[in-house]
Input
Amino acid sequence: MIPVAGTGSLGRMGPASRPVERFAFGGPWGALGLTLGLPLAVCYLSACLLDQGGALFLPASGAEWLALLPRPTWTAAALFAGWLGLQVLLQLGLPGRVVQGQPLEDGSRLAYRMNGLLAFAVTLGLALGAVALGWLPASLYRDQYRPLLACALLFAFAYSGYLYWHGLRHGRGERRTGHPLHDFFLGASLNPRTGGFDHKLFCEARPGLMLWVLGDLSLAAAQLERHGELSTPMLLVCAFQLLYVADYYLHEEAILTTWDIKHENFGFMLAFGDLVWVPFTYTFQALYLVEHAHELPWWGTAGIALLNAAGYLVFRGANRQKHRLRTRPGALVWGKKPEVLETARGTPLLVSGFWGLARHANYLGDLMMAVAWSLPCLFAHVTPWFYPIYFTLLLVLRERRDHATCREKYGADWERYCARVRWRIVPFVY
Ligand code: NDP
Output
């Protein structure tokens, strides 16, 4: 899934310390449960939004449960394949600055071409052009949601099988447990590449993220078709999420120092997250608002916009402070010389600015934005609140895994750091 801002310690660090492999997510059976359970969760929740106006429901029979599974169509398969093909062509063909990734265990670095912003602009231009010329209906995402979801799911399973095979064959001995269920889920190699094509960066950053934004815009068009006007909540949700993704591309290079790129193998968990979870569940608020075209009082709109802006400032500010520490160590933090804790590993830990308030203030900012994206949907149903609920779980888990990794990397220095910066994510709360 998308770690949308990293720390950017290009050039100064020693080889990235990779965590020792151990079973995660409850071992092989936990991995199997998630491999099957997560796709079913998407099918069920999207059915709530598409068929029940956002209400949760209990299918009455086995046949009704089975009916939740979406079916692929040739049209959707062609659309999905065309979409992936376009994004591959844009990643490979568009010009962009080539930057070196973080040092790998053997000290080498991989080169990445950063052309995401241009690819995003071209994609938006092509999509708007195709709609304006009448080649594609504006509400395509809503109309084709189920068959597209089916194609994306089938592709995610098949592709993860390929990644597993590729990892066993070409991997550099990255941490694997040797248990197929677990390694299929968490991945069998860190940076699978075919020629110069980097599978992980592509999936993390391109088709899913862009389909999320196009999905939102298409759902806004569906609301316009249905109700004859666009509601303020729909405008807020589309604007917030468009800005979030655009901001990712503006700071694209920062992804190279995120947890996903540095530490996470590329398997079903990330491939499914990138290709199915992001483009088909991050649109839930907009999907909900197609049917619910309510309005907000001006003070509600202003409050939500303020919360999103505050969240953005915390999120981007925290990520930027850490990025600067790694790339321009003397840069001021909140107008003062940064306070750092020197470590035996050689990479200092920031203990002032946002990083003096909590060990992952960047997560806090992201969570504030997540709440701001669901508030416009109000409180009648829980499904449009899916994103902040799941995201809280994700970030709490992620912080725990990062904490364990950092304890391994930094040893006693990490304990000193934790004693100094006590809070994990939310100052005075958690
Ligand atoms: P971070 O960017 O917080 O990276 C964690 C790493 O930063 C640690 O492993 C450590 O690595 C370094 N670090 C930790 N503390 C300090 C410190 N005090 N000073 C300097 N370096 C420190 O984590 P993520 O990659 O998980 O998240 C990046 C962003 O992506 C976050 O804002 C998150 O909210 C967002 N995100 C969004 C998702 C989405 O779906 N929308 C999904 C996941 C993440 P080292 O010491 O080796 O540099």
